[in-house]
Amino acid sequence: MPGPGDVAATLARVTIRPRTPQDLPACVDALAQVQAADRYPVDWPDDPGGWLTPDDLAAAWIAVESGVVVGHVGLTGDAEIVRLFVTPAARGGGLAARLLETARAAAAGPLKLQVSSEGKAAIAFYERAGWRRIGSDRAAWLNAAGEPALVHHYVSP
User: Fold this and answer.
1) Burial class (CB in 10 A: 0-12, 13-18, 19+), 106
2) Consecutive sets of 10 residues in the chain, 157 residues long: mean pLDDT of each?
3) SS3 of residue 24 by DSSP
4) Distance from chain centroid for Cα 100
5) pTM metric for this prediction
């Protein structure tokens, strides 16, 4: 298992930059790793590239280490964080926080996001980072149990 120095060295080699159309296949590969590990998204989309590029997407960034995409975050025109993920091998060193900060720096004002109640690690991460839950409701899509997912809504600190 890597130690703190190993994680810091790895993070120092990670570059965060705007996503280009040419990055999409590598983003889909990274998403497949996340989906296999965490079931995010719950159901693999018919068009994963389209799923990573919702109609209201204003900008997206990727984290790259040694030419490999290891993280992704999107920001909608409504200042909502979407499609945030870090591959399992790149976790534990603050990369998700760096991706969030990149999106925050590009936005004017507070950000919002939604997370399924099944995303326990994500919920814990957002709450440790100071995000505040402002409500919950049921989604149109189904969770792992086949029920309408319970989605929590958060606002940035």
Assistant:
1) middle
2) 51 90 98 94 94 97 97 97 97 94 94 94 93 96 90 96
3) helix
4) 8
5) 0.89
Output helix, strand, coil percentages for the chain, rounded to the nearest 5. Answer: 35, 35, 30
What CATH number should be reported for the domain holding residue 41?
Answer: 3.40.630.30
Runs of H (alpha helix) within 93-144? 95-106, 120-128
112, β-bridge pairs? 80, 155
State how many domains the chain has: 1
What is the model's pLDDT at position 8? 54
Closest of 20, 29, 79, 86 to residue 53, by C-alpha: 20
Task: Identify the pLDDT of residue 25.
Answer: 98
Domain hosting 37: range is 4-155
